[in-house]
Amino acid sequence: MRVRQLESFVCVCESGSITQAAAILNIVQPALGSQITALEQELGVQLLDRSPRGITTTPAGQYFLEEARDLLGRFATIKKNIKTFNNPEPGHLSIGLTASLSMLLAAPLAQEFNRQNLAAKVHIIEDISHNLPERIAKGEIDLALAFDIASHKAVNCTPVLTESLFFVTGPATEFNKQGPIDLAELSRATFVISTEKSHIIQLVKQAMEQLHLPLDVTYQIESKQAIKGLIAQGTASALLPYGVVAREVEAGALIARKIANPPLTRTLFLLQPSGYPISGHAEAALKIIEKFIAHLADNIAFELVEPADEQRLYRGRTIQP
């Protein structure tokens, strides 16, 4: 079994077609088909169901697909780490953050890394939570902070904070009051969202459906600045993490109220590779990140995960303030 075979198998599964996978991999279709057949013969089991409508994985193939992805992620990390043994230059370190966390942490983290003269070039990368575990597994990112992610065999996921979600509105609307807002009241508001696929929107929709209440989503705009402008005008409201609107709220341009009865929260996870020790650079960066996590607990939007909750969700060490 060769790495190239694993890469080919994953590509075929993800594209759903040997023809498309061959084009992506820049090899002829018969050669790719032979690789997959040889892999099935070596394993002694059928991995793919082939039909005129395309390719689907068998139960064995689905299991092997997950294992192949994990193995390719490990190979990528090994290749990345092994190069450091012969590299006299300072190491490179990549930290992944979501957009809302980037607004809160990117600049302070960069300044602290520089102040402590970390012996590595640090690159802070912004991406959606869903993508960060896979990028950790592939060795593209060394450490990350992400919300409500699924477990991953190649990634240690430690819950560290819970974040409250906020109803954000303009000063001139009927919702301009102090204190939390009941979930049921959201049925009277008009909302602007960035995408229907947003985890936050799905979370709120599910909660509203349980109360048999509608959610009026009238506007869809990708630009965060345009969304905040629409809210400030009083045209629409939004459901956002506090970090996205912290500056505007502090300046009085927007109003942010926690959602209550029931409260809506999501869990922040600290992600790092599993199965092998992290580098010395990453260990030093991890200590800095842990301090910032403890400081975030003082923010209006965050609370530290209690040890009992942490053990219930995933195994991992407690972050001490």
From TrEMBL:
UniProt feature coiled coil, ranges: none
One of the record's GO molecular function terms: DNA-binding transcription factor activity
Keyword list, A-Z: Activator, DNA-binding, Transcription, Transcription regulation
Cited InterPro entries: LysR_HTH_N, LysR_subst-bd, WH-like_DNA-bd_sf, WH_DNA-bd_sf
Presence of keyword DNA-binding: yes
Residue ranges constituting the HTH lysR-type domain according to the UniProt record: 1-58
Pfam families per the UniProt record, alphabetical: HTH_1, LysR_substrate
Superkingdom, natural source: Bacteria
BP term (GO), one: regulation of DNA-templated transcription initiation
Family note: Belongs to the LysR transcriptional regulatory family.
Protein name according to UniProt: LysR family nitrogen assimilation transcriptional regulator
Source organism per UniProt: Phyllobacterium trifolii
